[in-house]
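Predict structure. Chain length: 246.
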Amino acid sequence: MNHEVEHTCFYPNGSTRPCKGPTDDWSPELGCFIQYMQPQPPQTDPVWAGRTSGAIYRCWRGAPELGEAVWRPSPPDTGPPPVVVAEEAIRQLRLQPIVIGKTPRDGGIGILSVPTWLWVETPSMQQYAPNTEPRSATATAGPVSVTADAHVTHISYDMGDGHTVTCQTSGTPYRTRFGDRASPDCGHIYLRSSTREPQRSYEIRATAHWQVDWHENTGPQTGQRILTLTSTTRHRVAEIQLLTGP
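Prediction complete.
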């Protein structure tokens, strides 16, 4: 999902218009809209103040006809559209798929009906960033500066047995002292062994859903991107056969 917010400027007479137009633009430096004057005033006009370079612009805040002529050393460098700079900021986030942590560790075989714990193994800010501590990056091109803030909204685990688990946190790493209890925030219970699956194991697919909110530091534009990053691992599940005597 992509969207941009178009900001509207309001004037004293009640009329409105976009803050960025095809022929004029807001100048943070001057605190007004500027528009290249055509034709340019003659060099004898006092606004040039004896200068022979640069250009003359109309600077206005209420209505163009109420503006004043100002000299600028060169045409304003509007830079690329903020949405383009936002894409660079998002690339600089360098987000990565998570490394899946699960029980049993070290490639062991899971037991039927025993809870499987899921978590993000040794998470970095590039793999998992909560809403309270988003990962940020800023990109600049000419006069345009954009900051992107990213956080994980949730992680969905396709467990390979037809079930999907949605976790709102990075999960709790398993410790031996937890025994056979279920994970408090991210886990699953297999009710069917994986012996008939390809490679005799289930494929777990973990997809981290990132929400990236960006804002222009030098203007009013904002936007949002939703990114998904997926990683996989194999998981064997077996059924314990109990032997009883005669």
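Summary: The CA atoms of residues 194 and 236 lie 6 Å apart.
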